[in-house]
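User: Predict the structure for this protein chain, please.
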Amino acid sequence: KQAEKAVHQKKEQSKTKCRKARRRHINLVAEFNRRQRKNIWLETHIWHAKRFHMVKKWGYCLGDSPTEKSYRACYRAMTKHCLLQDLSYYCCLELTGKENELLKQLARICSIDTGLTFEEACCLSGRFEGSLNLYRADRYPEDMLGPVTFIWKPRDGSENRQLWIWMHPALKQDMLRELKAVFQCSELEEIYIPEPITTTIQEEKQMDVVLSLGKKRKKDDKEGEKAVPVKKIIGDGTRDPFQSYSWISQSTGIVISDRTMEILRYRLIGPLSHSVLTETLKAASLQTV
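Assistant: Here is the predicted structure, written as structure tokens:
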């Protein structure tokens, strides 16, 4: 009897809200955020989840194999049209500092004997992407860390340069540890910024604005319950949300930042890739004040 009563209560609770109310946008986003607490979803997760068998690897939920016969369609797209791959699960580390200091320390973890280095002229200008193998500092040809790709930000006339290094998530922790050791970087200290003192009139105006915004944004459903605000997920599959994501060198001023899942990365394959980009992306007009 108790089991039947529990089942009956569950049925009654499920019928309290209609399907339209359960599938409201704010409820769906909150549910999606709850489901990706352990394994982060990519921006294209919903599209892949409907067409692929998903696997959980390296802290992400990735598409492994298609659920239908699509190999011929993919091959046809690569040879005649355009095929897009989502590589946003690759980790990105950003290095900022003086160009001479960056090249001096980066030369310790790569070798010209293997081919391309960070000092290659075509890559140093920022026009092309480079790829190479990284090693532990001064340990070549032993202790290889793994392959990476890198892009330099084009020069803007200043001494400081920006370098983005992309790597597989399985290699991120080892490479990040080695880069911090080479550049002698430590965690950034939190800077406390005091809040400006507001008068009573300003406080009253701010309270009125907050109340008006709250009335507009919060909506009551049929049962009178207020909508639950959506929580934003911070971090990525390879980084704890409470872990620091920037490190600075006190001697050279070089900053290492973890940009994983902050910069999306897509790969386009096929003869019409350039046409797709020109039709999709539009150049923004620069307005000077």
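The CA atoms of residues 93 and 181 lie 15 Å apart.
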